[in-house]
Amino acid sequence: MATLEELRNQLDEIDNRMAELYQMRMDVCQQVGEYKVKAGRKVYDRQREKDKLADVASKVQGEFNKKGIKELYSQVMSMSRKLQYQRLVEAGALGRLPFIQIHSLDKENARVVFQGTEGAYGQAAMNQFFGEDVNCFHVRTFRDAMEAIEEGSADFAVLPIENSSAGPVNEMYDLLDEFENYIVAETILPVVHTLSGLPGTRLSEIKRVYSKAEALMQTTRFLDDHSDWQRISVVNTAIAAKKVLEDQDKAQAAVCSTYAAKIHGLEVLVDEINDEADNSTRFIVVTNQKIFLKDASKISIEFELPHESGSLYNILSHFIYNDLNMTKIESRPVEGKQWEYRFFVDFDGNLEDAAVKNAIRGLREEARNLRILGNYSIDGQI
Length: 382
Ligand SMILES: O=C(O)C(=O)C[C@]1(C(=O)O)C=C[C@@H](O)C=C1
Prior knowledge:
6-stranded mixed β-sheet; 5-stranded mixed β-sheet; 12 helices; about 40% helix; cytoplasm
């Protein structure tokens, strides 16, 4: 029987040949890339790759090896594509991304919309970003805000997309897909919930608590200590505060901010009732123009994938091979296609970076319906 050293020597010899063949193959792929730049051909040829995988699988013995060589060749061809995308980008074949670079946002002359009513967290986020004197109005739903932006009755909307304890605002992801609006900035608002009621209300008098569903979720521990209170979800925390004031019934209370309580003349009965002390909500600033700030450092995209094994894995490799740091991924069901998903990915970068252009080139060819949703930074700071 051969010793381990002898076997390793054999492997080294095989690997030397494989490395040499890999180098030769990539050199040919480089030429294929140059040909494709000139001929204006697409890099990704799904049928050719399918045929190639079937062909190499037919040349090895046993199911295990057939599966293995297919996986190996999927990777080899994926490297080949990435090399070719680089050539295309170097040759300027990416074209200009249809986003216009700007140096600052005109916050002073902006007309801004938020969802909810006076005292909503959305208003606080808007004031944090645009200042207290901003020219603004409010609408009832997130959809109304997206419509106001799309039709141009507002220049910007400030809308919540994620809470640090309750997670994503799913509806916002669906609306970003549905509307031709783009993210130009984000701002993070610390969210501190209170239990507020009519002045002089005692906790023992309370029977019903109103708030937005997410806020009720974020204060579950406190509310569980008062399990006899009925929890009723309304469209917004500020609307909950308004209702408590209007109904003038001490059996009712609201989970809302100190700001909303003050605006609607309520008394803070218990402060800081969040389950998590560090509770923040990330708001996006949305507009109907394809613009990005010069030094924007984060990109959001969306795409759909076929219902096939390995499709997400293959797509995400574009981030790895271009050294891009992916910071978030969300998925939402694609309407009318059961068990198919639309993915929303955030990653670090600027639309002018070569690595970003490379990745987008690959993603555009290999995923369905790729859309760039925006290139921005926290607080729009540059
Ligand atoms: O044959 C091509 O068109 C190539 O670009 C080469 C290659 C490969 O590496 O084999 C790479 C990408 C294509 O999707 C198909 C095959």
